[in-house]
Amino acid sequence: MTAEPKSASKPSEPTATRCGVVAVIGAPNAGKSTLVNQLVGQKVAITSAKAQTTRARLLGIALHEQTQMILVDTPGIFEPKRKLDRAMVTAAWDGTQSADAVLLMVDPIKQRRHELIPLIEALSKRPERKILVLNKVDKAVKEPLLMLAEELTAGTDFSEVFFISALTGDGVPQMKAALAEMMPKGPWHYPEDQVSDASERLLATEITREQLYQQLHDELPYDSAVRPESYTQRPDGSVEIRQQIVIGRESQKHIVLGKGGRMIKSIGEAARKELSEILGVKVHLFLHVKVSENWAEDKEVFEEMGLDWGR
Ligand SMILES: Nc1nc2c(ncn2[C@@H]2O[C@H](COP(=O)(O)OP(=O)(O)OP(=O)(O)O)[C@@H](O)[C@H]2O)c(=O)[nH]1
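Predict the joint structure of the above. Result:
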């Protein structure tokens, strides 16, 4: 008996992978960075209760089965006053360009319809596919939430509406699966293990800034920055990081330093611990405070943050 002839080899299967860009926009504090971290499955963007925490566009890379989603975390969109604010808002809109889906994130507890109208109108002029995401359902009351969803979608071209909690993850897996379906077929743009486009040096300054915001709560005005000074690997494999905490006024110095230097020590300790965990090596972190009245008008600071000076 002759063996059955093998079927002629089929042409190779068309690629099953998908890859696309999902931009996340919204007012400050809506929960954009929290969502990006949830979708990626690890922390790539810093978050805080302080508005305008995200200052420049950051890419988080999320996977769902055969799909790679490049998530664009953007600064909050608000009425800009200073040059830094304008550059942040420009970076947010730039982040949506040619995205395969734009998510408008809304905090239904704080935001009202009339506050969102200008943003929705600006969004409606854009060609990208738009999705409305009502966040913080863990805290929102059902009836007003549904009413807001109805008001925001009336006469607009949102193709989908999701109700989620970026903080607890409620509703996020379902939304992630739906987003993955919307991505175009094609090869992945990033290696499987890459989770963000930020350098370790930039991530390190962001982690310190997050601690600064978290530990000083409302005592420190939004008027501060963390600048990298050096980032070097020691022969034993550990990393030595030096950073500058820049504040706008001399009178803020004692707030950051704390009594007997206790505050800056605590900020440094928490940031060092978190960085060691993320980088998987021992970290030596040295912080010092510098007063610079005009740091928010400094081209070099803008460029370090990934913002465009010229616009
Ligand atoms: N209760 C609750 N809080 C949330 C949720 N998502 C985000 N938050 C909180 O809301 C605050 C702002 O979250 P972020 O992710 O920093 O918000 P953002 O939109 O990136 O803010 P900007 O950087 O200012 O544009 C933080 O204190 C988060 O913990 C949520 O689903 N539920």
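Strands lie at 18-26, 58-64, 67-73, 101-106, 130-134, 158-163, 224-233, 239-247, 283-291.
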